[in-house]
Prior knowledge:
Blueprint: H1 9-13, H2 15-23, H3 29-33, E1 39-41, E2 57-71, E3 78-85, E4 90-97, H4 104-109, E5 115-125, E6 128-132, E7 135-138, H5 146-153, E8 157-159, H6 168-179, H7 193-199, H8 204-212, H9 217-246, H10 264-271, H11 278-291, E9 298-303, H12 309-322, E10 326-331, H13 334-348, E11 365-369, H14 375-387, E12 390-396, H15 398-401, E13 409-415, H16 422-429, E14 437-442, H17 448-454, E15 459-463, E16 473-479, H18 483-498, E17 502-506, H19 522-529, H20 551-559, E18 569-572, H21 578-590, E19 595-598, E20 611-616, H22 624-631, E21 641-647, H23 654-664, H24 668-678, H25 681-688, H26 705-721, H27 729-749
Parallel strand pairs: 4-6, 9-14, 9-15, 10-12, 10-13, 11-12, 13-14, 16-21, 17-19, 17-20, 18-19, 20-21
Antiparallel strand pairs: 1-8, 2-3, 2-5, 3-4, 5-6, 5-7
Helix pairs in contact: 8-9, 9-26, 9-27, 10-12, 11-12, 23-24
Magnesium ion binds near residues 309, 310 and 605.
Amino acid sequence: xxxxxxxxxxRLLGTRSGAALEKMGLVTADDxxxxxxxxxxxxxxxxxxxxxxxxxxxxxxxxxxxxxxxxMRNRQGALLQVVVTDGRGRLSLTFFARHPGALRGHEAxxxxxxxxVFSGTVSAYRGERQLTHPDYVLVGGDVEDADAAVDEASKxxxxxxxxxxxxxxxxxRAVRTVLDPLTEDDVPDPVPAEVRASAGLPTRLEALxxxxxPATAAEWRAGQHRLRFEEAFVLQAALAQRRAAAAxxxxxARPPRPAEDPGLLxxxxxxxxxxxxxxxxxxxxxVARDLARPRPMQRLLQGDVGSGKTVVALxxxxxxxxxxxxxxLLAPTEVLAAQHARTLRTLLGPLAxxxxxxxxxxxxxxxxxxxxxxxxxxKQALLQAASGEAGxxxxxxxxxxxxxxxxxxxxxxxxxxxxxxxxxxxALRAKGRVAPHLLVMTATPIPRTxxxxxxxxxxxxxxxEVPAQRAGISTHVVPADNPRWMERTWQRVRxxxxxxxxxxxxxxxxxxxxxxxxGPAAGKVKAAEFDDEVPEFLDGDAEExxxxxxxxxxxEELRATPALAGLEVGVLHGQMPPGEKDAAMAAFxxxxxxxxxxxxxxxxxxxxxxxxxxxxxxxxxxxxxQLHQLRGRVGRGSAPGLCLLVSTAQPGTPAAARVEALAxxxxxxxxxxxxxxxxxxxxxxxxxxxxxxxSLRLLRVVKDADLIEQARRAAxxxxxxxxxxxxxxxxxxxxxxxxxxxxxxxxxxx
Length: 750
Ligand code: ADP
Ligand code: MG
């Protein structure tokens, strides 16, 4: 379907404006209209010209004192400078254009002596307060009298996510140029009329008008509400379709062995050195029942760091092996895959030495298959997977996309869901003759509505207790600019190492001279940086923040730190060759190095029980959930853990609030909730959805829980009655538009 919304902006707005918008990823009219205002300036009252604060959006009633057009000093173009006064203060208004002719309209109106209301954001130029491209309404020109001018100027002003090349006022004009001529027929509405009627919602066009050109605050709020509903509704309809499709699929049933004919699972249970927690049992039973059905299991297992998910997963894998199938365990990194393979082999003991001297007779094998294996080892692992000799194959996601053959793949377990979204689940389903069962494990606790939004097609199980009495962990914030505290930090590390323990030191970057963060942490840290909404006038040059600390630099410093003299300082980051990574991890594991300086590659799953301290540099730049994950790496043994968050955040900022929250609680669910509240939800959701930009622009998964439920209730009956949505082609098209780019991205990466 093509219509006016598909038209290119270069055509609608001219090549120059269009090209500038294209650089922001806005290509079509539709893209531009979905570029929603980030917030609204509500001028409301006039500002006293004597109190113009930098960065504030103001409206002033004033008289034009002088107006001059002159060429720009350093670059091509012309400048109209107008000085207005209210009799007490003076304020400059500046208008730029490439050609003086383009300024003529303003020049003709803004003649000395005219009075009007001028609105814009206050900035400073050479010490003088000014408004750049202000909006204005002139008395006796645009409106009759001063009251009317004030009234007109008090409409909420949309403020757009802007760039230096395309400032918000230019976006606002572009939007209006595109939006104003549209009619209802031009704007297809994926929310059917009957749903709109029963929910009391305006049409899509009405909503677009309300958010882009509101007359009142109530108007843009109503518009936003309607667009949020639409996002939730399209998503819930898509998920309902997926569930319906999955319920039709075949899988091989893998029932547990009967008691009189016990298999590996029973022998494993008997050999466990601890008793399963009640939660592990309950979830284990749910999983066992799912596996026994001829429909593919689609289950998300969430449990805080250390809640014992691995054992649950291993028991599921053994049930499948007992039933003659194979299981694959996918980890997000090669380091973690290698560690998982070691952990599983240790837990299984002789049960993992099938066919080997001294191994259990009916035992199986755990194969590790990663891209960096030497050719011979790789060939052997491939063979073990293809022949079925290995009941369990551990690797990264590449296991699914490479030409890895399984004799009979019955179960896929994914550790850490971050990069395993809807698309990957599709790829997986396409892998075998029949779909394997799927268990996705996550330690990032997901609030209910997020689970419903991102994983709406999965069943959810939760492990809520942490087994074995852990010694606990205490967390403190260390101000980076306090040398005494920093010194004490390294003394604490020394004390721990002297007591036989080990320390992690985490930095957001690898090289000190790289662009801010090209390492594995880059995306996340970048996202965190944008949390503290930088006021627009600060864009670019302002607010100097110290550069992020880097692994290589910090490692050098620590080797020269007197408190750490004589200690071995190891290094681990994502750009090291896989062999070196393994060696660094192994050295730390074995105690050959006692301090490990690394990026967030250790974020998930790494298990070194002797590690008791973690120092995180630039902690204020990380998301809360990520810090919680990191912190979960220490205090895993019997000795208490200590986490020191080195922060450069100014008191009172959201970044400071994040690190303080972490110091106060160890409850992962509470932190996940807080995280969502404190930071840009798009980031959180984006990360959960395989790192791409979220298709949800306005929907807030925590605050809009009720709206999501409402949309779900509206979408379900519609899909049940008409799974192909043939009666609702506009909804079907919206779903397709939402899912397509994801698929492409996944294929590119694979
Ligand atoms: P996570 O959920 O973070 O993946 P793990 O599965 O790695 O947690 O478990 C953390 C530690 O707790 C491991 O050393 C594991 O062997 C141990 N563990 C798991 N279940 C129990 C239990 N029921 N009792 C005691 N220790 C357990
Ligand atoms: Mg784990």
